[in-house]
Amino acid sequence: MLSIKRLSRDEAFIMIAAAEKKATAIGVPQVIAVADESGNLIAFSRMDGGKSSSIQIAIAKAFTSGAARNPTMFYNEHCVPGSPSFGIHVSNEGKFSIIGGGVPVYAGNDCIGGIGVSSGTPAQDVEVADAGVKALEAQWKRKKARTKK
Amino acid sequence: MLSIKRLSRDEAFIMIAAAEKKATAIGVPQVIAVADESGNLIAFSRMDGGKSSSIQIAIAKAFTSGAARNPTMFYNEHCVPGSPSFGIHVSNEGKFSIIGGGVPVYAGNDCIGGIGVSSGTPAQDVEVADAGVKALEAQWKRKKARTKK
Amino acid sequence: MLSIKRLSRDEAFIMIAAAEKKATAIGVPQVIAVADESGNLIAFSRMDGGKSSSIQIAIAKAFTSGAARNPTMFYNEHCVPGSPSFGIHVSNEGKFSIIGGGVPVYAGNDCIGGIGVSSGTPAQDVEVADAGVKALEAQWKRKKARTKK
Amino acid sequence: MLSIKRLSRDEAFIMIAAAEKKATAIGVPQVIAVADESGNLIAFSRMDGGKSSSIQIAIAKAFTSGAARNPTMFYNEHCVPGSPSFGIHVSNEGKFSIIGGGVPVYAGNDCIGGIGVSSGTPAQDVEVADAGVKALEAQWKRKKARTKK
Fold first, then answer.
1. What residue ranges do the domains of chain C occupy?
2. Is the ipTM reported for this complex over the cut 0.90?
3. Which residues of C touch A (CB under 8 A)?
4. CATH assignment, B9-144
5. 0.95 exceeded by the pTM?
6. Which of A1, A109, A147 to mutate to test the interface with C (most CBs of C within 10 A)?
7. d(Cα C25, Cα C48) in Å, to the nearest integer?
């Protein structure tokens, strides 16, 4: 039997809260999804004004970063005509996103989930997704520091 | 031009919080989705232990109750072989759910969204979805009372 | 962070070997799939003579029993017109199977995966799936007995 | 009436065993699928640690190499904008993979199936798929040698 590490529901919403805060700061209402290490949705928020076309994109970015364990930008850079990974953008019934804005969450060497953001430019989406991941990592550090005392 | 009434992001999460509270009270980790009046996802939470097969079902129940403006149980009762609405359960590329647990949200005569719950028995799912709707209605009443003063 | 129990690759093939042995004994070439606790495929074998139409069915049965944590026969019994769970057979983009032959695997209270069998009658499929589960449970008992010594 | 040559279940697992051995040697837990000459799945193994997003990709690579009778890399090289085969990567409802890692199996002039590997880099996936094919060809040679004696 295997023992798998997975983002909890509360951790997913810590990420969403921080991502929404960053989205508000840069003035872009975003659609934000968090998936687990298997790519399955844990948490989701579409801010007022977020695009309805971004719902599936955000969920796909969360799936991709969580299940494939890389930022979607990694695949974006490699998935160009003539490259051997070209075509990955149409895999998984269209649920594999190579658009910037999906970022995996690692606990040590284990990918335990991913966050996907959509509605802004890819650069804005990445910035908001990163804010979500950093907030969770900061929370982990605070917890660890408390435990050590 | 039309002016459409729609659940806000904050209202969606008021519903999810109340639904999660009820789910915890009855001891069933649930998957909860809230959609707008067009059927598009606004908010989502999979409680720790919620089934991964319930993700699409909860989203489908929210879509159905929000967009079709009836509880999914309404369709469940009518969608039986020989009835003229039989077949609706396979419409919308499988996203039309007739399983109990989807409940629309009305503001007066306007359906402004819907909540869908999945992972328990249909009766438990309905109970948890109802708790979400009631919490939002109670909040509206409190606001109205404050405004009158 | 959550810690999730999941069937390993080797455990999945212990189940497939036992299921194939039973299928051979009853003279029905079967298609056998094993999924993890999230419903994702781990192992698969189509015996020579197994039906090609059974590929998706076996995978769907494994998904359903692993992710929804019940035998597919449970849903078969409940999913009848007029029942509040009628309609579940068309959920999850057709990947939710209510045909007999999907059986979950439990380690204590945790569902860690599921096995799905297709090509025979539902009764034969259940018999073969059960043989797979029992073989794994027997192996666990032997291991436990060895550890105690 | 036609007589079709097709990979057997046992031959498929000879390929998977050799592919897994190579995957272990290069330190990449892989997802491996084997399809028949019609593109239908015969055998599948997701090694512990293989990505869940690779399940559909490996199956698509096996389908493509078995049914289209070429390595997926062949299509990767030709499927570039401006080339007359550009667009094939979105055919077959997304099940046609042009990512490196799908390799057909030939018995003389007949394509009798294909193997698809996913989770590593395309180069690693090709290396592991090739190991599967070579192991089966070696086994055929040994059998032939024995028959001659």
1. 9-148
2. yes
3. 1-8, 11, 36, 38, 40, 107, 112
4. 3.30.450.150
5. yes
6. A1
7. 14
